[in-house]
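Internal tracking record. Fields below are filled automatically when a chain is submitted to the structure queue. Please do not edit lines marked as system-generated. If the sequence contains nonstandard residues, flag them in the REMARKS field before resubmitting.
Queue: standard
Priority: normal
Entity type: single polypeptide chain
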Amino acid sequence: MPFCHSIINISCVKSSWSNDMRASLYSLMVLIILTTLVGNLIVIISVSHFKQLHTPTNWLIHSMATVDFLLGCLVMPYSMVRSVEHCWYFGDIFCKIHTSTDIMLSSASIFHLSFISIDRYCAVCDPLRYKIRINVLVIFVMIFISWSVPAIFAFAMIFLELNFKGVEETYYKHVHCIGGCSVFFSKIAGILAFMTSFYIPGSIMLCVYYKIYFIAKGQARSIINSNQDLQIGLEGKNGISRSKERKAAKTLGVVMGVFLMCWCPFFVCTVMDPFLDYTIPPTLNDALIWFGYLNSTFNPMVYAFFYPWFRTALKMILFGKIGLI
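SYSTEM-GENERATED OUTPUT FOLLOWS
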């Protein structure tokens, strides 16, 4: 049986996968990383370069793309080696930095999704006062919260070792080994992480989208049922505007669906594992982490499919016309 460290009796066990299996996993994960980096980099360049895209909403999208890009750049490559080899070769201090950064960026991405849903709610439900309510200052506050709260939570949790406070004996007896870098949560820490990083922002997204769906549906019905001649021109204008906002609402629904599909399995296992006496296999946990990472990979694809401005910017970037604007 291969080990990660020369001191066998306290070393983590290395993966026993064949070279072909390793090559396949590395190829798949490299593809995910590159897709994440390229997709989010295009979003960052598009919003930064084209002045027409310098709107408060797009700066929120720009900030989320930056978070997802950093996740693909700073976190995923090291997670890839750990997931394939089942060993950590980068030292204990960097393990804490990597784990903290992982939790921070993953949570920050989810926070951004939650604030984007609030932004879309204001656009659909109160379009006349939208520009007054959602201005640059409000977006800045949203971005600041989306970065700072996950950062404080993640680094405090890991560097103060609050994640296994109260179950230190269990951790050092049955989980800790030299050459490993696994995330371990006590019952309280697991619930706290679940609530902070997933349940609260996810519930906000779910409730907001639920309201947006029914309000947009009611707006569409009112436009169809309106037969007053004096309002035809006005309704035509409002109809076009509201049609765009309903499309944005559908985009939010897809983003939320992708978010739940990617992150729900991981966070459910995270909160349940301490109550199941840590019987969930580490390999399954690793797989679910990568499933969660896919959320950062899919976000730019959702923009490319739903937002015309993104498709236009993408074509200009790919054909080298970006310097002409």
